[in-house]
Design goal:
This protein has 15 helices and 20 strands. The chain has about 525 residues and is of the alpha/beta class. The chain folds into 2 domains: about 280 residues, Aldehyde Dehydrogenase, Chain A, domain 1, CATH 3.40.605.10; about 190 residues, Aldehyde Dehydrogenase, Chain A, domain 2 (3-Layer(aba) Sandwich). It has a 7-stranded mixed sheet, sandwiched between helices. Strands 8-7-6-9-10 form a 5-stranded parallel sheet, with helices on both faces. α1 crosses α4 and α8 packs parallel to α9. The two termini are about 35 Å apart.
């Protein structure tokens, strides 16, 4: 099976009137269907429960996206049983056929490009471009992983050994638990699911309760593309009950989790315990949080640096694990940078993304309350120069907020907030800035704005993050071009969207055949 060279999916052009018109039509279609009930999907069958929960539009919480069944541990058992049964046949499907199904999924996603983009805007509150970029990322995952599987299906060349012929093959693991977050409900879930199924594994998919509609729609896409029943199973429910039970399930071979450090630690602990009848060590991929920094050197374009910091800090309301939450600025340009940054942030407009605003509400009420509590802490730890309040609107809005003169050891500089709060920290010089940047428990993404080649080289060697960006914002990773994943408490550095990622879903097998005459 030969495929064209991989290329990233192009974004929609929102300057075109027909694109805006089509998106508006899809908003109207979704809103006309809001309030309906949607089931779980286990072994290709719809499953419901008496107890339900609702998904709402964070920018207009009175608008109910839909209602969904609250899954139970019994549903997890059923889903794992279905996935294990499907695995026995799915693992025998040739890699080329599995790759072809991934390509069909990508094709069906393109068909529903506008529907997917609009529901991401409505259910999790992303701006148009951010929502469409995530749909493009999902398409890229299925395209990229299909090609990667064809590469791995060829095996590896071994050293010759007299009198023997040896093969080095890759085989699947079994049942994979995919526990995905709300902030990238397509981009992250499809990364794990596409890799799992193309490698011959089957999946139990537990999405966030803040993005169930998007997950249900993905399941419909998988079915239309011809994914066999039981290969991907959808179970809703709380992370503390359904998620942790799934991670600990003795018939699950692998767990992929993206979310907070606190929950990730519990998932790793539960997955490490051998359950009854379990005779394998579970693999665990963790992609967790960060306290990401952009360093602003003294000899750089401060306007460009401010734009990069704002893009990293306030894109999707700061609700990215890679978001810039610390701007570390060399003393020589500190005051001027703060002036430029403050002016630009004050000019930002806040409103519902459906209406074209690029900065909307945070995901839910508890998130808003947590962010506001950190803002109160910030008022004690530094100087508030912009934001720190909420607009008078129905949604879960928090204005973009900047604190300056923050101590590197302050809570605002050390703890992940996951919202639109930026701390600006003064460094004596570039070496001091690097020291501050590295002084957290995290190691996910980072950036440097500098025109000094020596300092850029020093950052390459000493800035300890999984993804380092020089003279650009520290968010926005393209599949195949920017494999994503960090160190320390930011996760297992699994590098989603990179050439090594599929290895997490495969195990190797050596076959040696003695030559007889």
């Amino acid at each position: 099976m030969s495929l064209p060279t991989y290329r990233n999916e192009e974004f929609l052009d929102f300057s075109q009137e027909y694109v805006k018109k089509k998106l508006a039509e899809e908003f109207a279609k979704w809103e006309a269907s809001f309030g309906k009930h949607y089931p779980m999907i286990i072994d290709g069958k719809e499953v419901n429960r008496e107890e339900t929960f609702s998904s709402v539009n964070p920018n207009q919480p009175s608008q109910v996206i839909g209602t969904f069944p609250k899954g139970t541990t019994a549903d997890v058992d059923d889903a794992v049983r279905a996935a294990r049964k499907a695995f026995e046949s799915w693992k025998r499907v040739p890699a080329a056929e599995r790759a072809a199904i991934n390509l069909r999924i990508a094709s069906v996603m393109r068909k529903y490009r506008y529907e997917l983009t609009s529901i991401v805007v409505l259910e999790v509150g992303k701006a148009w471009l951010e929502a469409d970029a995530e749909v493009a990322e999902g398409i890229d995952h299925f395209e990229y992983s299909a090609r990667e599987m064809l590469r791995y299906a060829q095996g590896k060349e071994l050293m010759p050994f007299a009198g023997e012929i040896s093969e080095y093959r890759y085989i699947p693991l079994g049942v994979c638990a995919v526990i995905s977050p709300w902030n990238f409900p397509i981009g992250i879930s499809t990364g794990m699911i596409s890799s799992a199924i193309v490698a011959g594994n089957t999946v139990v998919f537990k999405p966030s309760s803040d993005s169930p509609m998007i997950s249900y729609f993905l399941m419909k896409i998988f079915a239309e593309a011809g994914v066999p029943d039981g290969v991907v199973n959808l179970v809703f429910g709380s992370g503390s009950v359904v998620g942790e039970y799934l991670a600990a399930h003795p018939q699950v071979n692998f767990v992929g989790f993206t979310g907070s450090k606190e929950v990730g630690v519990r998932v790793a602990q539960r997955a490490a315990i051998l359950g009854e009848g379990q005779y394998w060590f579970k693999r665990v991929i963790l992609e967790l949080g960060g306290k990401n920094a952009i360093i602003v050197d003294s000899n750089t374009d401060l306007d460009d640096a401010a734009n990069g910091v704002i893009g990293g800090a306030f894109g999707y309301q700061g609700q990215k694990c890679s978001a810039c939450s610390r701007a570390i600025v060399v003393a020589d340009v500190y005051d001027r940078f703060v002036e430029i940054l403050t002016e630009k942030v004050r000019a930002m407009k806040v409103g519902a993304p459906k209406d074209g605003y690029t900065f909307g509400a945070v995901i839910n009420r508890s998130s808003k309350e947590k962010i506001l509590s950190y803002i109160e802490i910030g008022k004690q730890e530094g100087r508030l120069v912009v934001g720190g309040d909420c607009p008078d609107a129905e949604g879960y809005f928090v204005n973009p907020t900047v604190f300056v003169d923050i101590d590197p050891q302050a809570r605002l500089a050390q703890e992940e907030i996951f919202g639109p709060v930026l701390s600006v920290i003064k460094a004596n010089d570039f070496d001091h800035a690097l020291e501050i940047a590295n002084n957290t428990i995290y190691g996910l993404s980072g950036g440097v704005y500098s025109k000094d080649p020596m300092n850029l080289h020093k950052a390459k060697e000493e800035f300890y993050v999984g993804n380092l960006y020089l003279n650009r914002k520290n968010t926005g990773a393209w599949i195949g071009a920017h494999p994503f994943g960090g160190y320390n408490m930011s996760g297992t550095n699994s590098k989603l969207g990179g050439p090594d990622y599929l290895l997490n879903f495969l195990q190797s097998k050596l076959i040696t055949h003695k030559i007889t005459v």
